[in-house]
Amino acid sequence: MIRRLCLITGASAGIGAEFARQYAALGWDLALTARRTDRLEALGTELSEAHGIETLAIAEDLGADGAPERILAAIAARDRQVDALVNNAGYGLPGTFFNTSWDDQAQFIRVLYTAPIELAHRVLPGMAERHYGRIINVASLAGYAAGSAGHTLYASVKAGMIKFSESLNAECEAMGHADIHCTALCPGFTWSEFHDVNGTREDTNKMPKWMWMEAAPVVKAGIEAVNRGQPVVVPGMANKTIATLTRILPEPLGRAMVSAQSRRYRRMD
Ligand SMILES: NC(=O)c1ccc[n+]([C@@H]2O[C@H](COP(=O)([O-])OP(=O)(O)OC[C@H]3O[C@@H](n4cnc5c(N)ncnc54)[C@H](OP(=O)(O)O)[C@@H]3O)[C@@H](O)[C@H]2O)c1
Fold this sequence. Notes:
about 270 residues; alpha/beta; 7-stranded parallel sheet; binds NADP nicotinamide-adenine-dinucleotide phosphate
């Protein structure tokens, strides 16, 4: 029997590695991609042995020209198709718009915005043919809230991923693709390597513990939501409360609250 295959970007750490664990436990084959091959291979071997599934490790920098096409070609070369896509790879770019180079900003936009959208665009025709597909875009609570100073494009690309997911999910429904769903997963602070990579660990460790979630319940919420056909999901009570507040507070008050909070962990240097 051919098992379904899930392609996960950013599978070498954090939320992406947890997506791999949960899809493997559900009996899916996996295509794991990120830049660190050693980690992808170690995770793939561990999950194949534990669950009797097939795994494929694809080393790619999502910011490189042609990366989405090469990732999908590596899967096609194994005669496999993508039944679920988890667009998860990401990072924070510290500093202000003024003091970061265009090269860094352009790479950021490619990794967190254009590459995931291209992957979705390229896998959808196959999903339509097979009448089945799941796309989870890992966005952020930051995409809900007002923008604030520092890490300038982060909220912007995440807001874009939320809107893209809502539109794509609605389109699938309107076009009669009853079993193809797209969901934006919007985590708040989640334990992973994210804040080590962007150099904000010391500051974010000062944030109250109730604001943090483990990756496992975040990922579970994403998988359950996409299976239900829910276009956006915010995992956890604390995050849901913050998301609701961002919708009901008068805009200037919401903006002031976000600015006050984000000054505690967004780097401006
Ligand atoms: N942690 C949080 O608090 C939080 C909150 C909201 C949203 N998120 C979102 O959750 C997603 C996953 O982040 P995480 O928290 O799990 O962080 P993480 O532990 O640092 O993992 C990030 C993953 O992205 C991959 N990645 C980074 N740059 C890449 C590139 N140029 N090409 C290919 N892969 C790349 C990394 O792999 P390699 O380094 O091996 O390439 C790694 O596997 C991100 O989209 C992030 O924005 C995180």
